[in-house]
Every structure is written in C-alpha cells, then in structure tokens.
Amino acid sequence: MDGSALVSRQIYHAVGSDKKRCLPKTHVMETTPSSSSGAISLMTLIFQDKDSKRLAKCLRDSVDVFVVFLRRHKSCPFKVLLDKYCPVDGKYEDTGSVKNVPYFQVKSLCLAICKRVIPLKIWGSQVNRTAFISNMERYLSLRKKGNMSVKNVMQGIRISDCDFVKLPKRAHDCRASQSESNKRQGLVTKFFVWLMNSYIAPLLRNAFTITESIPGRNRVFFYRKEMWADAQAAAVQDMHSLTPLLEEDAGTVESLGLAPMRLIPKTCGLRPIVNLGAKINPSDSFPYQPRSVNQLLSNIESVLGYERQRSPDLLGAAVMDYGEIFHKISSFKGMHKGDGRCLHFVRLDFTKCYERINQDKMLEILEQVIKEDEYTIRKYCTVKTIFNDNLVFKHRQPAAPAEDNRYFPAFVEDVTRKRKLNNSLIVDKMNYGSICRDELMRDLVKHIKGNIVQLSSQKYLQSCGIAQGSKISPILCNLYLGHMEREVFPDVLCDKDSLLMRWMDDPLLVTYDLELAKRYLTTTLELDPAYNCEVNVEKCLVNFDIPAQKEINQLPECDCWIFWCGLLMNTVTLEVKYDYSKTQDMKDVKNSLTFDVTKTPGMKMMENLMAAMQTKLHQVFLHPTVNSIRTVETNLQESFMYFARRFDAFVSELPPRIQVHQNPDFFVKGMENIIQRYYVLASRFLDRTITQEKVFSLFYQAVLELIRRKSVRYGVLIDMLKGKVNSL
C-alpha cells in the first residue's frame, strides 16, 4: 500500500444514528456472525487482494483471533461507554448554545473501545497499541481539510510484532525474503488503515456530529447527537424564511435544483450554510452528469457582471474589495486635503439581510437591471505564473450584447486595457453561447422564488430572502441595497462632503456634515417597509453625541479608531489599518491554519505563509495618499508580526523529522524568498523614504521579537536572523 495515500476523513456532518449501537446496522462488524466463517469473511474484506478473492495462506492461522475480535465487538456496550466517557451535560434550551464534547473525552472513548474490543494478539504488542492510539489522537485533532497519510497511521508500529500474519517457517539463521517481508508489511498496513478508516471513523460518525464552528474557524468539534438534534430543532424554528415541504410537494415547485444545507455553531445558536455548489441535480442534456445550482447560474452571473460594469451606480455605495475602498478613500482625501473640519462616522449593520430581502422587490429590480434582449457569452482562459513559478489557470466567461461580434484579438485588446493581465497567456476557447432575457428572468424566478434546501431528510422552500450560498447572492444583495440607497439616500450618495461605503450589508458613512450624519442614522433606523431591512442597533456605532438615540453605541472620546469589516479607520485622519486583534492569541492563529503535512510540509508551509502575507499586502495599508509614513511603518510591522505568529504556529505543527534545528538554512532561505517577493510587490505603493533595508529590518526584527522567547526551539535560527539584521 502506498505510504503517501491519504486516509479517509469522511466523518463530518453525518445525519442520524443508531440508538443502540455506535456502528450502522449495515456495517460488516454488525452483519458478520461471530464464527469461523464470519471471521474469514471479515478478513477477506479487510485484506482483499485484486488478484485473488481468497484469504491468503499466511492469515489462515489467525482466524480464531478475528473470531475473538468479532465476539468482543458484539458484546461491547458502546452506548454505555459513550455515556460514561462523553456524558450529555444539560439541555440545549438550558445553556442557550450547543455544547461540544471536549477532545480528551472523545480520545478516552476511542481508547476504551480499542482496549476492550481489539485482542492483544492483533496488536502484536503493547508498543503497537500505544503507537496506534497516538496516531489516532493525531487523527482526531486534525483540523478541517487536514489530511493523514497511510505512513502517518503506521508511524511507530512494529511490523515484526504482528503475529496474525504468519510467515513460512525457516531455519533458525535464515531471514525472510524481501518479497515475504513486503507482503507482510502490506497486510499489516491494510489492517491498521482499515481500523482507522472503516472502524474508528464510522464509530465517530455515528456517535457524534462533527463539524467546524464560527469562533473556532478550522478547528473540528464533536457534539453528542442528542444535544445536536435539540439545537438543530431550535435553529429551524428560528428560520422563519423556510417553509417545510412534503416530498410530493417538492416536485411541483419550479426550481433550479436541490441544495443541501447544514448548520455550524456560532457564539450563540447555529448558522445555516447552504451548499449550492453540490453536484446532486441530474442534467437533462448531454453530458448527463449531475450539476450544481451554481453551475446553472453561470450565465446569469456573467450578465449581471456585465451590467454592473456598464452601470456602476446600480450597486450604490457598494465596495467589493480593498481596491475599491482605497480608490474611494484616496479620492475623498484628495478633494479635502488640508480641510480642518471634524469627520463624523456612522457604522451600521443590517440584521439577517439575505434572509429578509423581499423576493418580489428583488425581481422588480432585476427587471430594470437586465436591459438587453439577448446576450453573448464568450469563453476564454488566462494562464499566469505566481511567485513559486506555478501556473494559475482562470476560466472566464464574460457577457456582452448580442451585437458585439468582435474578433477575439480586438476583444483581448479591450480586456487588457481594462484589467491587469501582464505576463499572461489568453486562450480563446472557441465555444460561445447566447442567452435571451426571458430565459434569464425565468431562471432568476426559479432561483429566488423556488430555492429548495434540504436539512437531514427534510426539504424546505425559502419563502423570503435569497440563498446565501449562491454565486450570485453577493451581487443580488448589492443590487438590492444599492437600489434602496439610490431611492432613500440620493443626497448622501451625491454629497461631496460625504463618503458612503458598504461592504455587503455593513454600511459606513464618513462625512463633515453632522446634520447629514444624524439624518442618515435616523432614516436608516426607520426604513421603508417595502425593503424589509432592519438595522441591528447593538452593532451600530457613531463618534458623535446623539441624545435622541441612547441605544446607539458611541465611540469613546479617548479612542480615535473605528472598526469596520476587518479594518480600523482613524476618525481624525481617515488612515486605515488592518485589525489584528483576532490573531493575537496563538490558539486562534492555529485554528485558522489549513496545513497538509502529508507531502513536502516545509514547502507547503512557505507557500501558505506567502499567501497569508499577500492578503495583507495592499495599497490601502501602504500607499502614502491614504496613510502617513508612520502609519505605513506600523502596518508593515503589524503584518510582519502576524507572519511571525503564523510561522510559529506552522512550525509547531511540523512532523518531528522536520524541525528548525535540523535544517535552519531551509527556514532562513524561505523567509528571505518571502520578504524579497513581498518587497517587490509592496514597492509599487511604498513611499521612497521606506527603503528595502528598512522593510527587511522591520521583518527580521518582528520575527526575532516573537521567537526570542522560545530559544529552545529556535536557538540556531535566532543567531542566523541576528546576523541578517546586523548585515543590513
């Protein structure tokens, strides 16, 4: 068996459980009798060979041991052990939030089951059992998208101790041949991989609901099925936009297809997540393969994208990325350079905006947005290299009016003028399509009015709002709120002394006009019921006195930084910083990691660190038109401290064979490559007074500040980085 092959991680979001057993009724351990014939059937399944369906000769003497394995399994009181090691503590209604089972309790349960069910003769030795338990603990502690290879499962296990695989008898001084040793290793590996894949994993899947959470990021949590069922029932009752559907009624609804929904815990309650990318809907045309709802929405996404580019004012004050925030702030500051007046801030938040959108109003807005009778859908691909010389392919399908019959070279010339496609190869797919307005509106009605989701075995129709997991939901939300802003706040959008920005459903008003700020706040709190929007007063924040609105939070006078969508904005200078408050705790940093240690973990770590650095490398933090030199240097320093924390978190996750003290040159070289690449990209925005030596010095000093406290792990690396700083 290939040591680099991955072990199955299909343990998440399992539905239902057996109230008496911890394994499904159809599992081989449940259906196989505790007899010699049953043991042979079990062993044939575990050690199955492509070339032969018969049990290998070297395993036939171990049939009795597997009979004991079956008997122990069938007599094991799984539910008693589950209640003993992972008790249900209280009820969901009492606690207000679903309570997870601590990791050490899940570990204790698995340990108790392994000791009780699996005979020592199968383990071969106490060393092997201890090694497998240790590897199982690592399996349980993997984060979301974490992988474990066959080699990781077998780490520490002595093949020679496993006597259930009998080698042919030889003379006392004769060693087994290489082929026999390989065969034995393969059979032993098959058993322990089966034990992890097909025994431990189904036990966990049937006993617990396993999922990530909003506060825990990528960390995996275990919940007792009973507690989760109560929490799920309470969450469904709070989803007033969902109407239960009978099976026979679901077929009568005109819909683009079914979408599975799952719930993930948040600080209080559960949040619904709809997967409209799941390919579970049968296709009615060639090729006859399942398609997702998002695939069916591709043409609509292209058309709405085209109309958005043609008429940017349709989205109102919406900003889609940091680039748009930068251009709005730099333009606003440029117009009011040297203005000594006070800035007034109003930060708002709409409650459950996606779920409260008026479907009829949304369709009415879309009727106005889609202007052409027919659209052409072009298809092309861009190929570009990234920092580690890997090729990145991006498939695009822009829409245009049917009259746009330009040849591809003329089209490419126009695209390259509008977008930055330097050092890119653009390939025409030669596969164009068209879609008419009536078909677009039909599909939009099906998507908005006929959105069917399935939670467990129950189907629901979304009678209010739009699907949050849809690829077009962001632009639909922006079109909806943009229409409201143009109808209700046209004076705010046109006022030269004001800057209104909205990231999805979180608006922020910056204005010199205090009366306009108060009027905007009052009007928003009393919005037209036709839009069905409601402001979450608890998340509102202003930096001025409002005696009439005592429930609105006010920024303390001693604080001049206001938080908005992951950014910190200075209420005096309108400078921008990134909010790193959630990355100060190392536990939160580790929970955010998605790290594959099965193949080239060192290179994967460096790639991940570079990608994380690039997310904070933007002109809104580094450009002198927005920030002063001092603030830019602060932003650089904070981003480098963020890098250092992630670096330390990654190193703590590396296998024992790949540690800093074993190959410090690799880590120093990796850091050099990252900061050099970072500076090449950042130098486009940085002021000339911030030199390369300054950036490099800030970087190495930030890393040293963190790792200096951990001299045992980083002793050699500290000395090498000190040398780098002194040489600058």
TrEMBL record:
Its EC number is 2.7.7.49. Belongs to the reverse transcriptase family. Telomerase subfamily. PROSITE patterns: RT_POL. CDD domains: TERT (cd01648). This is Telomerase reverse transcriptase. InterPro entries: RT_dom, Telomerase_RBD, Telomerase_RT, TERT_C. It catalyses: DNA(n) + a 2'-deoxyribonucleoside 5'-triphosphate = DNA(n+1) + diphosphate. It comes from the Eukaryota. One of its GO terms (molecular function) is telomerase RNA binding. It is an enzyme of class 2 (transferase). Its main location: nucleus. Telomerase is a ribonucleoprotein enzyme essential for the replication of chromosome termini in most eukaryotes. It elongates telomeres. It is a reverse transcriptase that adds simple sequence repeats to chromosome ends by copying a template sequence within the RNA component of the enzyme. Gene3D superfamilies: 1.10.132.70, 1.10.357.90. GO terms for biological process: telomere maintenance via telomerase.
